[in-house]
Amino acid sequence: MSSALLPKPQMRRLLARRMKFHLFGAFFLSVGCAALYKFGIAEPRKRAYAEFYKNYDPMKDFEAMRAAGVFESAPPK
């Protein structure tokens, strides 16, 4: 009597069906995370570096560090 009340579980191709669902889900989740990282972190970081190096003068920075006594081989003037 109790077997008539419960439907039989689908056992055939259960793993394949669940794996297909989870593979698609994992693929779209990873693509979404990659897009969020690229446009949320990598692109702003590249723009910040480009902006910094647009007006960066390495000789001026070297002279400032040299005057501060950072380098042992180049004593302050």
TrEMBL record:
Pathway: Energy metabolism; oxidative phosphorylation
CDD domains membership: CcO_VIc (cd22901)
Locations listed in the record: Mitochondrion inner membrane
GO cellular component: mitochondrial inner membrane; respiratory chain complex IV
GO biological process per UniProt: mitochondrial electron transport, cytochrome c to oxygen
Cited Pfam families: COX6C (PF02937)
The keyword Kinase appears for this protein: no
Membrane topology category: Single-pass membrane protein
Main location: mitochondrion
Keywords annotated in UniProt: Membrane, Mitochondrion, Mitochondrion inner membrane, Transmembrane, Transmembrane helix
Gene3D superfamilies the UniProt entry points to: Mitochondrial cytochrome c oxidase subunit VIc/VIIs
PANTHER family membership: CYTOCHROME C OXIDASE SUBUNIT 6C
Assembly: Component of the cytochrome c oxidase (complex IV, CIV), a multisubunit enzyme composed of 14 subunits. The complex is composed of a catalytic core of 3 subunits MT-CO1, MT-CO2 and MT-CO3, encoded in the mitochondrial DNA, and 11 supernumerary subunits COX4I, COX5A, COX5B, COX6A, COX6B, COX6C, COX7A, COX7B, COX7C, COX8 and NDUFA4, which are encoded in the nuclear genome.
Family membership: Belongs to the cytochrome c oxidase subunit 6c family.
Function (record text): Component of the cytochrome c oxidase, the last enzyme in the mitochondrial electron transport chain which drives oxidative phosphorylation. The respiratory chain contains 3 multisubunit complexes succinate dehydrogenase (complex II, CII), ubiquinol-cytochrome c oxidoreductase (cytochrome b-c1 complex, complex III, CIII) and cytochrome c oxidase (complex IV, CIV), that cooperate to transfer electrons derived from NADH and succinate to molecular oxygen, creating an electrochemical gradient over the inner membrane that drives transmembrane transport and the ATP synthase.
Name this protein carries in UniProt: Cytochrome c oxidase subunit 6C
Organism (species): Athene cunicularia
Source taxonomy: Eukaryota, Metazoa, Chordata, Craniata, Vertebrata
